[in-house]
Specification:
Blueprint: H1 2-25, E1 31-53, H2 61-65, E2 74-99, E3 150-162, E4 167-179, H3 182-205, H4 215-236, E5 238-250, E6 260-267, E7 271-273, E8 281-288, E9 304-319, E10 322-341, H5 342-350
Antiparallel strand pairs: 1-2, 1-5, 3-4, 6-7, 6-8, 8-9, 9-10
Helix pairs in contact: 3-4
């Protein structure tokens, strides 16, 4: 019984302490507490990742077809689209309270603070981030050849033949079935490609015993072209493409002297990666701010409403030396903080 009583007493003490803590963290009564606005620059980035598989006959392409293809497998990523959007958020590190007498100050006065309230209509918050990375696979060239994998080779064998006084060595010719070399396969495939091209030319020029017209001619030429492209992949390889979309947020810092930020990185292996992933190449955001003229204080006293005048900045997105995007963006935390006397605010509202 005593144990149960102690447990109840402990829970009651904890409840009182939690309530006291909640009251201490609450904003004081009779005051309107608000935050100054800050700007978050959001980048919606789209990139295309190419996974290239070199053809098994690539090193023979120049010899038999007169072309120089890519010789090895590789994965590359190219940016295809960047969208930059500034979002306004509440700066929780810059909060103010102003005393409001009942009926003296209309809450609409805070519209003068450029949406400085914690909750405001035009606030937009980050959506769920979706990560989509490709799964590594091997190139598949199976079933793209039409010639046999085996060939016949002549081999000379020797056997001993008994004569009257000795054994003589006699040669015997024998054919053996062996696997074709890679170059032999490449030569046969190249011959097939050239033959398909000749057939297509004969159909187009009418230099053939068969008669093609209308849709039949188009279907025959299309099929020959498809077969040629199929066999050409054995020499020039083929690529698989995947589109990746990511969203990255950059929050400019007012105390930072160098307004250059790594917005995100590009990795040929993983695609678009965050700024702290050192495996990728950096894409930099450069913010150029405008100068503000200082305003002399007028010596006014009393309750004031603080607000921020945003700095209209030139924001550049660079991938190495390449300029990808440039735009003018208002950034609140890099601008000028000012204040408005409550008396003036009341006059403005009641006017």
């Amino acid at each position: 019984m005593k144990r149960i009583f102690r447990t109840i007493l402990t829970l009651a003490v904890l409840a009182v302490s939690f309530a006291a803590s909640a009251q201490s963290n609450a904003d004081p009564e009779g005051y309107v507490t608000y935050s100054l606005p800050m700007t978050t620059i959001t980048l919606d980035v789209e990139a295309v990742q190419e996974t290239f598989y070199a053809g098994p006959y690539a090193k023979y392409a120049e010899k038999y077809l007169g072309i120089k293809p890519r010789m090895k497998d590789e994965t590359t990523v190219q940016l295809s689209q960047i969208k930059m959007t500034p979002y306004v958020e509440a700066d929780q590190n810059c909060r103010y309270s102003v005393f409001v007498k009942k009926g003296t100050l209309n809450p609409s006065v805070f519209s003068l603070s450029a949406a400085g309230l914690v909750t405001f209509a035009d606030a937009k918050f980050a959506d769920e981030t979706v990560w989509r990375f490709p799964v590594k696979s091997d190139g598949d060239f199976s079933g793209k050849g039409i010639s046999s994998n085996l060939t016949s080779e002549a081999t000379t064998l020797y056997r001993n033949e008994k004569k009257e006084s000795a054994y003589n060595r006699v040669s015997v010719q024998q054919n053996m079935v062996v696997e074709k070399s890679l170059e032999q396969k490449a030569a046969e495939t190249a011959a097939t490609i050239l033959d398909l091209r000749r057939q297509r030319l004969q159909i187009v020029t009418g230099d053939t015993d068969a008669t093609y017209s209308g849709e039949a001619m188009g279907a025959a030429i299309g099929e020959l072209a498809r077969l040629e492209q199929e066999y050409m992949t054995l020499f020039v390889g083929y690529s698989e493409f995947q589109t990746q979309k990511m969203r990255f947020d950059v929050v400019p810092e007012a105390a930072r002297e160098n307004q250059m930020y790594i917005a995100f990185r590009i990795s040929d292996k993983s695609g678009l990666v965050p700024a702290d992933d050192m495996t990728g190449r950096p894409v930099v955001m450069e913010i150029q701010t405008q100068a503000f003229e200082k305003v002399k204080a007028g010596g006014q006293k009393g309750e004031v409403v603080h607000y921020r005048i945003p700095a209209v900045c030139t924001v550049k997105i660079k991938n190495g030396a390449d300029l990808l995007l440039q735009s003018r963006v208002p950034v609140y935390q890099l601008g000028q903080e000012s204040s408005l006397p409550v008396a003036v605010a009341v006059a403005v509202v009641n006017k």
